[in-house]
């Protein structure tokens, strides 16, 4: 077997081995049970609640949860905008990086608040150390904790027989930070800092190259930033090149650490659901469906990158290492291909290779990973997205077999199905409308004025199928809260900053509001004990049904767009 394939198998297995006990620990944290971090965390949490005048024992209904969630996120937006617009004169700016323009600050603030981290700037020159730490890295923590708290609300709602009281949002949120994200981030950042990632407040360093040239090299407090960017499935790069940069990802070992870091919490939440509901078989069923989907995406990508370009093959030129364009030799083709699907499936958005240089079939798989947006997913929100497909699968299965649709003892009725259908349709709506608008303006060679300071065709460094893929990828990444990009697109201008910013807002909060609302409605219904006529949702038959629902919705929604972009490019190269 190819040794590179053994490397990625080791990453996946190591993630799974750690994720199962971590999932059990997460379930205990949200259930309020005793954990080994209680002596350290209890006093800290009590102090925070006391100075903030928060009663963490006061339970909220699902509407109060959502009001609190949205309100605190709006405050973070205002604070982030202030820092980004004024970083030029604020302290901790040794490289004298300027303040952001209003449209770029708008996009950046929203992007980091919603856990997307779609960066239309370069980390070395676009932000100060103060911004990196007190704004962006802080948002790495709280945006991830927001999704995790929302998932805890759903766990609570699904576990209770009949109630409107679903715990306290502040309690779930703070515990997500203090008991899960902070300890893991500290551990990973120590490992990374001892393996070559800088952790300093000094500015650029000047070195002399072998040619005798003087070069300035950016550095900074990167180790802590890189740790939480992966653990929180954020993905925003401290440096512009993200995890292809040797100061963000120096070696194959750090590549493994970062790969496991970004997958471990999404994996763990799948098992946390099983432990919290005391339905471990359901957790393994869900994990099986997600893993089957992940394999359907990652296997074609790996083999596409190993085989390389058909055009080069037709010229009789050997490609012994596969397609290495846009990849780092310290990682290789297979690990880069694996990362590209993991980061798009999980919605981390960090990159250890340039996706714009991937083979067309790989680009199609990367796009499809974000378009489906339900296999593993981000911190907490991956389960929320998958929950929508469970509701739809339960409803359709009930119609097919003539049984009342039920999930965990609660009837799935018209309101829940309508909410799930709207959320499922809204994701492709945002992507396709955005891609259609940008394609129309490009085709018309529209004069954009202040929106772009030139013609819309100036957006693209590539024309034809690949140019369309670049625009499609940008809106897909924004809607999936991913943040990666086909970097042939010139995106730092008012048009892309504002349109993707709007999509970022809608695509983050509506998919949280929908599942929490459904779970809240189910929690208020009378519990119906399981019987011989109950449709079981932890069987292989229901797993296949759920996979089929996901595949059908994705195919109907996205196949035409994929056919116009990466698939058309693939068949053109294969002539």
In short:
The chain is an all-alpha fold and 575 residues long. Helix content is 64%, strand content 2%. The longest helix has 31 residues, at 129-159.
Major beta sheet, specifics?
Answer: 2 strands, antiparallel
Protein structure class: mainly alpha
Q: How many domains? A: 2
Low-confidence stretches: none
Elements, N to C (H/E):
HHHHHHHEEHHHHHHHEEHHHHH
Structural account:
- 64% of the residues lie in helices and 2% in strands.
- The protein is mainly alpha-helical and 575 residues long.
- The chain folds into 2 domains: 15-278, no CATH class; 387-573, no CATH class.
- The chain has a two-stranded antiparallel ribbon. A two-stranded antiparallel sheet has the order 3-4.
- The radius of gyration is 23 Å and the shape is globular.
- The mean pLDDT is 90.
Name the features:
two-stranded antiparallel sheet, single chain, 575 residues, two-stranded antiparallel ribbon, mainly alpha, 2% strand, 2 domains
Helix-strand layout with pairing:
Layout: H1 3-31, H2 38-51, H3 62-86, H4 102-113, H5 123-126, H6 129-159, H7 169-193, E1 205-208, E2 214-217, H8 222-231, H9 252-277, H10 280-307, H11 310-314, H12 332-345, H13 360-372, H14 381-401, E3 406-407, E4 410-411, H15 414-443, H16 464-479, H17 494-523, H18 540-564, H19 566-573
Antiparallel strand pairs: 1-2, 3-4
Helix pairs in contact: 1-9, 1-12, 3-4, 3-6, 3-17, 4-17, 6-7, 6-8, 6-17, 7-8, 8-9, 9-10, 10-12, 10-13, 10-18, 12-13, 13-16, 13-18, 13-19, 14-15, 14-17, 14-18, 15-16, 15-17, 15-18, 16-17
